[in-house]
From TrEMBL:
ATP binds at K253. PANTHER family: GLUTAMATE--TRNA LIGASE, GLUTAMATE--TRNA LIGASE, MITOCHONDRIAL-RELATED. Residues 378-452 form the Aminoacyl-tRNA synthetase class I anticodon-binding domain. Keywords: Aminoacyl-tRNA synthetase, ATP-binding, Cytoplasm, Ligase, Nucleotide-binding, Protein biosynthesis. This is Glutamate--tRNA ligase. Its EC number is 6.1.1.17. Monomer. The lineage of its organism: Bacteria, Pseudomonadati, Pseudomonadota, Alphaproteobacteria, Hyphomicrobiales.
Length: 453
């Protein structure tokens, strides 16, 4: 059996960091087990679904490092849902209901007022053919509900019916079907709810494992029943905790600021996003892993915590900086070239320790190439004049800075910050930055002397 998982976003907007967690969990699980990853667009909402969003989602997933084995679209599979629905109708497991949303809400309100759970009473199942025809004459269209197997032959006499499974993240889980309403699978306009379409697709596509957010735990018992009613083997489920802000707010409310596209545009490394999205809220140390293979090695669903995974965007900067600091020139080379940066490996290795983003290298390249806004304090003017006179002869090398500052220290008595800071300011215009012994050879003798007034 080939392990097969899926990620099924709706192309009604851009995906954000919260969406990336289930996408990455499914991808990593597939890679760890030699399996397949299906990207399946839930695009049956024709009014809100747009191709531009589907294209954006594909682009964002590929930027993260997720390469789908196949891409499916639910809008192309309506005939399979029709056939499955007919199977359930023929078995007497799908029945029409004619209540309006307002009528259903009034009924739920009465049940709550009486201290009862607002579970649907299967009134639609009691209706005669004549009553249904009367509703049709009024112009009402039915929605269709699935009869949950929470009874022993009489659907109006429910009893506790436990569905238990061993969850990949949460261990043994149990839900009681008697505490639930029969789910609506077909809307009054004839469109299928995601719950039903997803199950039909999971069966057809051989999905073996369903890994998703913990907000779907209560749905799992219902889905067990539908899988079995369609004569299919139930997949293995795993429900991971959800990413929230540090204040516990759902990330979906802030998805604009934390969309994958916006994170990419800020210049972040995809592996900083992947590392934080995957490891936050687990027993594993959150660290910047350089490759997806390294993340696959560390990934473990059993390490997922039961508590929420609090996501702090500030941590992205820290992780990203670690990745940049360790990034080999061979990895950065093409990107530096695209930024118009030269200097080769010597430049990159000199400045990468001071970069949070690869694009930060531009500022240091401008310092190397010049011109710079040199800064000289009044108290340092005489010292800088002496510095120019004491600049070592010959080629500028990694030893030049040490020789120069040693000579100046002996001549002027300056040391520490008073010795080094005026030189850094006049040559770079900055108070801090890469090691001057590495910068000097890159700047070159003539530009150094030109910057010393």
């Amino acid at each position: 059996m080939t392990i097969t998982v899926r990620f099924a976003p709706s192309p009604t907007g851009h995906i954000h960091i919260g969406n990336s967690r289930p996408a990455l969990y499914n991808w990593l699980f597939a890679k760890k087990n030699g399996g397949r990853f299906v990207l399946r667009f839930d695009d049956t909402d024709t009014e809100r679904s747009k191709q531009e969003y589907a294209d954006s989602i594909e682009q964002d997933l590929r930027w993260l490092g997720i390469q789908p084995d196949t891409i499916e679209r639910q809008s192309e599979r309506i005939a399979s849902y029709d056939a499955a629905a007919q199977t359930l109708k023929d078995a007497g497991l799908l029945y029409p209901c004619y209540e309006t949303p307002e009528e259903l809400e009034r009924r739920r309100s009465r049940q709550r007022a009486l201290g009862r759970p607002p579970v649907y009473d299967r009134a639609g199942l009691k209706q005669t053919e004549d009553e249904r025809k009367a509703f049709e004459t009024e112009g009402r269209k039915p929605h269709w509900r699935f009869v949950l197997p929470n009874h022993q032959g009489d659907p109006f006499s429910t009893q506790r019916t436990e569905v238990t499974w061993e969850d990949l993240c949460r261990g043994q889980q149990t839900v009681d079907l008697a505490s639930m309403s029969d789910p609506v699978l077909i809307r009054a306009d004839g469109t299928y709810l995601y719950t039903f379409a997803s199950i039909v697709d999971d069966i057809a596509m051989g999905i073996t494992h369903i890994i998703r957010g913990e907000d779907h735990v209560s749905n799992t018992g219902v889905q067990f029943a539908i899988f079995e009613a369609l004569g299919a083997k139930v997949p293995i489920f795993g429900h991971h905790n959800l990413l929230t802000t540090v204040d516990g707010e759902g990330l979906s409310k802030r998805k604009g600021a934390l969309s994958i596209g916006s994170l990419r545009e800020t210049g972040l490394e995809p592996m900083s996003v992947c590392s934080l999205a995957v490891l936050t809220g687990t027993s594993k140390a959150v660290e910047a892993l350089p490759t997806m293979d390294a993340l696959v090695e560390k990934f473990d669903l059993t390490s997922v915590s039961r508590s929420s995974a609090k996501f702090d965007p500030e941590e992205l900067k820290v992780l990203n900086a670690r990745l940049v600091h360790d990034m080999p020139f061979e990895v950065a080379s093409d990107r530096l070239k695209d930024l118009g940066i030269g200097g080769g490996a010597a430049f990159w290795e000199a400045i990468r320790g001071n970069c949070e983003l690869v694009s930060d290298a531009r500022g240091y390249w401008e310092i190397v190439e010049g011109p710079v806004q040199s800064r000289v304090e009044d108290d340092d003017r005489e010292f800088i004049a002496q510095a120019k006179a004491f600049f070592p002869e010959g080629d500028v090398s990694a030893e030049t800075w040490g020789a120069w500052t040693s000579a100046l220290k002996a001549e002027t008595g300056r040391k520490g910050r008073g010795l080094f800071m005026p030189l850094r300011r006049v040559l770079t215009g900055l108070d801090h930055g890469p090691d001057m012994k590495d910068l000097l050879p890159l700047i070159g003798r003539q530009k150094i002397l030109d910057r010393l007034p």
